[in-house]
Design a protein that fits this description.
By secondary structure, this protein is mainly alpha-helical. It has one domain. It is built from five helices and four strands. The strands form two sheets. A two-stranded antiparallel sheet has the order 1-2. A two-stranded antiparallel ribbon has the order 3-4. The termini are far apart. The structure holds heme C.
């Protein structure tokens, strides 16, 4: 038997005995925040026409400090309590609700898998690990993070 095939079988049986692991911030949560939230929720920046764009709702989701601090209403992410976390409750409302995130027609709603990852991550304590924040250029292209 080829080694690769043996490895696959071994990993397959291992996953049956190991408990399900909680969502991983960098692998499962950060990509959805970068793709679906940070266009509106990142540090203030100047557009090419010189206008300053401020984070919507005073909420910065592109830095660990911003996530901790939350937006103007507070309680953006309440560690271990997704039900009290606006970042979770507002993505699980009815899509036509005025509070739904991302706002209607302004981005794709989170998928089932993304919702699950976000919930698991918050309920496990919302640890951002060694992430230092995600940076974008003025055109909104990710530079680092
Ligand atoms: C197209 C722009 C846009 C995108 C994309 C977007 N938001 Fe928002 N968000 C807003 C605006 C505008 C507000 C302020 C008005 C309001 O509270 O509805 C806001 C407010 C919020 C608030 C409340 C902040 C506070 O304390 O007042 C939360 C939480 C939030 N957004 C989470 C998210 C999450 C999570 C995502 C990604 C899934 C997301 N948003 C994507 C525009 C956006």
């Amino acid at each position: 038997m080829k080694t690769a095939l043996k490895t696959t079988i071994l990993l397959g049986s291992l996953s049956l005995v190991l408990p399900a692991t909680a969502a991983d911030f960098k692998k499962d949560v950060l990509p959805l925040l970068e793709k679906k939230c940070m266009s509106c929720h990142r540090e203030a920046y100047k557009t090419s026409s010189g206008r300053t764009k401020k984070p919507k709702g005073k909420l910065i989701l592109s830095t660990p400090a911003g996530i901790k601090e939350g937006g103007s209403e507070g309680d953006t992410i309440v560690p271990k309590n997704s039900a009290k976390s606006l970042a979770y409750t507002r993505v699980t409302l009815d899509k036509t609700d005025d509070d739904f995130m991302p706002p209607e027609d302004k981005g794709d709603p989170l998928t089932e898998a993304e919702l699950k990852a976000l919930k698991e991550w918050i309920d496990a304590g919302a640890d951002t690990g060694d992430w230092k924040g995600t940076k974008f250029d003025d055109a909104g292209k990710k530079i680092s993070g």
